[in-house]
Amino acid sequence: METKEYLLQALGKARITMNNDEGGPFGAVIVDPSSGEVYVASNTVLGSHDPTAHAEVNAIREACRQKGTHDLSGCILLTTCYPCPMCLSAIIWANIKEVYYGCTAQDAEAIGFRDDFIYRYIQDGCKDSTILEMKESERETCLTLFEEYSQKEKELY
């Protein structure tokens, strides 16, 4: 697999949406080596007014939709920047085990993006209430839903 070729596809897609004021300088490609399928996406946060519309998440959504699955085991993700915490989580949930990235979280931070800021918040135990205040509420009530799900022996993901 030629990583540069795929990263250039991600870069090209990101440049288009960036110049159309639809999102930032982020593009991603998912490759399924077993089928040769390629899914290209970019960041569309500004155009869609959706803070979760990052390139990696958009690529995962498209690949899953087209493949008819939530499991992208065996696929490879290539992205123009190290994934933010949300995207990193989505990649892990999708069972993607291999990621190639161009720029670093520090590169993103240098132009004003908050990826590294969020990583520091997580590393510090998510305890800074000036950033986000987390409060547990009605745990016992909500546990009933978990118990119901557990009894159904549904697929875990």
Keywords:
single chain; 157 residues; alpha+beta; 4-stranded mixed beta sheet; 15% strand; globular
Describe this structure in words.
The structure is a single chain. The chain has helices spanning 3-19, 45-48, 55-67, 85-93, 105-110, 115-123, 139-151, and strands at 27-32, 37-42, 76-81, 98-103. The chain is globular, with a radius of gyration of 18 Å. Helix 3 (55-67) packs parallel to helix 4. The protein has a 4-stranded mixed sheet. By secondary structure, the chain is of the alpha+beta class. The mean pLDDT is 95. It has 7 helices and 4 strands.
In summary, what is this structure?
By secondary structure, the protein is of the alpha+beta class. It has seven helices and four strands; from the N terminus they run αββααβαβααα.
Protein topology:
Layout: H1 3-19, E1 27-32, E2 37-42, H2 45-48, H3 55-67, E3 76-81, H4 85-93, E4 98-103, H5 105-110, H6 115-123, H7 139-151
Parallel strand pairs: 3-4
Antiparallel strand pairs: 1-2, 1-3
Tell me the strand percentage band: 15-25%
CA-to-CA gap between the ends? 28 Å
Overall structural class, as computed from helix and strand content, comes to alpha+beta
Low confidence ranges: none
